[in-house]
Amino acid sequence: MGVLIFLLVIVVLLALVALAMAVKVVKQYEQGVLFRFGRLVGTRSPGLRFIIPVVDVLHRVSLRVVTMPIQSQGIITRDNVSVDVSAVAYFRVVDAVKSVIAIENVSAAINQIAQTTLRKVVGQHTLDETLSETDRINLDIREILDVTTAEWGVQVTLVELKDIQLPDSMKRAMARQAEAEREKRAKIINAEGESLAAAALGDASDTMMAHPLALQLRNLQSLVEIGVDKNTTVVFPAPLMSTIGELGSFLAREATAAAAPAPPVDLTTTIPAAVPNGATETVR
Fold first, then answer.
1. What is the 3-state secondary structure (H, E, C) of 213-226?
2. For tag attachment on the chain, is the N or C end more exposed, with fewer CB atoms within 10 Å?
3. 256 phi, psi to nearest 5 deg
């Protein structure tokens, strides 16, 4: 009796172990690939799935997007500049069967092919192109990876250059170049401003020559503007010599007019006198 109970317990335990091995749960973001005696049977959708223990093997493949950093690579650009470039790649499995059968380790394979593709593509561009045309480089890398990984059932959705490290000497050279460029722009803008100011002053001088009082009005306006601050002593450059000359001319005209002789007075008048018979007589 005791042996029978012991055997019954053993059978129950074996049944529980077999049931545990037969029950598989495929999550919503996964897809199961079923093998029976080493041969592909098919795929299993998410949910509770039963397999034959020992006979069947179920590989669960994640269909989510995987973020894979690409470690920094020492690359020599087309213009012989050594740079360290790191990137990040995003990929997802679109064919679970190919990802299990065609390749042993999808993540490791994509990591290696991404590194070699990064060196190849960046090495075909100059330093300026690498810094300014990152979008085109990202697109080129993704297209090359898509062609290779399509046979593995993997789709590369995005590749982005993450960091570009330059040598210290190149950083200093680029800083000097940027500084020289800004100085050039500043000088050009200053020269354009001087040209416009000179043209405006020329027009103003023409206007003042046509209207002599305009200069005096401008001087008075400047005095009004300066007079706002009463605590400041200002030396205003007035046209002193021209003013003295005009004042001298005015005094000379006045002196000449004062020294000129008075015009003679004509004392001869005609006085009519009454004479007999209606005749007139002139008296001097």
1. HHHHHHHHHHHHHH
2. N
3. -65, -40
How sure is the predictor about 281, in pLDDT bands with cuts at 50, 70 and 90? very low
Beta bridge partners of 83: 75
User: How far apart are alpha carbons 25 and 20 in whole angstroms?
Assistant: 11
Q: How many beta carbons lie within 10 A of that of residue 240, not counting itself?
A: 8
Query: Are residues 32 and 58 in contact, defined by beta-carbon separation less than 8 angstroms?
Result: yes
Query: Of the candidates 36, 38, 34, 16, which has an alpha carbon nearest to the alpha carbon of residue 26?
Result: 34
Contact 84, 72 (CB under 8 A): yes
Q: Taking the complete model, does pTM exceed 0.90, yes or no?
A: no
Distance CA 6, CA 31 (A): 41
Q: What is the mean pLDDT of residues 187-201?
A: 89
Burial class, 102, CB count within 10 angstroms (exposed 0-12 / middle 13-18 / buried 19+): middle
Q: 3-state SS of the chain: helix, strand, coil percent to 5?
A: 55, 25, 20
